[in-house]
Write a structure and sequence with these properties.
The protein is of the alpha/beta class. The protein has 13 helices and eleven strands. It has helices at 5-26, 52-61, 103-109, 122-135, 149-160, 163-184, 215-219, 238-244, 254-258, 270-274, 296-307, 316-327, 334-341, and strands at 28-31, 37-40, 47-49, 113-118, 139-143, 194-198, 205-207, 223-224, 233-235, 248-251, 277-279.
């Protein structure tokens, strides 16, 4: 016997209520690194990274969930990336200096979750709350400090339902950092070279002690010459660099490094005279900084071996291959490893043992 219109309406209403209740039950509370409690969907299929450090973290754990890149990868980076991520769209950054994404771009990406990794200060928590309120998309914050890399992996794994894979990467990250820490822990002060991090085309921007951008210097057994800057990035004068007279210069800019030996502003500095100028490998993400994310894990191992080759006799190509396989999802051939580690600068000190 056919049901009445009133009965059908009641059944429809009951079904809607059931679906709503089921959806509410499927949501799960998640407490992020800033102490914010965020309701996450039971299943997460697309994730948007709010900034470059979060993009690297997400890529290493779950490249299949990426909604896109914050900025499009450089063409030279593409061979070092998992193939399906090479053509993902770029949507801009929500956080940090030079934010370019907006609410419309976020909604267009249709993510189930927004992830940021970096500072946990009130400015970033406020931004997360605001974007979450405007879009209705859950937004979590993870601690981007280098020492918290294993914890960031475990938290992201819990949020994404990828706990086993996250725990494996967390364990590798901790083992790598612990290996370096054990080797350099007992070094006396006079065996810790004084290091200047030269940013920008003129090398006159740096990260002062306490900056997230220079965390690797001390972790690798060095001493940052730029001590008094309140833990931030900033510009310095050539005279200041001359006064510091560092033993080692680290840079991301090969062109800057190549010109130091003939530049009257730099050629008298001890690091230039002795050839201790180290250009951090850049692909697919710079090893030392830019962004200051989990890409620095391999950078720590590289810099520690450059500063203290006697403490790290393991062949660096083997270390690189293993890291890229486990974290970047690519198997490198010999030419790719050689391209990453790069030729020595003319006049540089001998390479560490291979």
């Amino acid at each position: 016997m056919p049901s009445s219109p009133g009965r059908r309406a009641s059944l429809a209403a009951a079904l809607i209520l059931l679906l709503v209740a089921s959806g509410a039950a499927a949501a799960r509370p998640f407490t992020d690194a800033a102490g914010r409690t965020v309701e996450l969907p039971e299943r997460i299929g697309r994730v948007l990274a709010a900034g470059p450090p979060a993009a690297v973290l997400l890529y290493t754990l779950a490249p299949d969930l990426m909604a896109g890149w914050v900025t499009a990868p450089h063409p030279e980076a593409l061979p070092f990336l998992e193939p399906r991520t090479r053509t993902l769209p770029a949507y801009g950054r929500l956080t940090g200096r030079g934010g370019t994404a907006n609410v419309e771009a976020v909604l267009a990406a249709k993510p189930d979750l927004i992830v940021d990794s970096g500072s946990l200060g009130p400015t970033y928590a406020s931004l997360a709350d605001r974007i979450q309120a405007q879009t209705g998309i859950p937004y979590i914050l993870l601690d981007g400090s280098f020492a918290k890399s294993p914890e960031a992996y475990r938290q992201l794994g819990a949020a994404l339902g990828r706990q086993s894979a996250a725990d494996a990467l967390a364990a590798e990250a901790k083992a790598l950092a612990d290996r370096v820490d054990r080797a350099v822990a007992t070094l006396p002060e006079d065996r810790r070279p004084r290091v200047y991090y030269a940013r920008g085309p003129r090398g006159l921007e740096t990260g002062f002690a306490g900056s997230i951008n220079t965390e690797l210097v001390e972790a690798a057994g060095g001493r940052n010459v730029a001590q008094d800057g309140g833990g931030r990035l900033g510009n310095v004068s050539p005279e200041q660099v001359l006064a510091w007279n560092p033993d080692v210069i680290v840079t991301l800019d090969p062109a800057f490094a190549a010109g130091l030996r003939t530049d009257p502003l730099w050629r008298t500095i001890r690091a230039v005279q002795t050839g201790r100028i180290y250009v951090a490998p850049l692909q697919p993400f710079p090893w030392f900084d830019a962004p200051p994310g989990v890409n620095r894990l391999i950078g720590l191992r590289w810099l520690a071996a450059r500063l203290h080759p006697d403490l790290f006799p393991e062949p660096m190509p083997d270390v690189v291959r293993a890291f890229y396989r486990d974290f970047y999802h690519v198997d490198l051939d010999g030419d790719q490893v050689a391209a990453l580690l790069g030729p020595r600068l003319a006049g540089a000190e001998p390479d560490a043992p291979k």
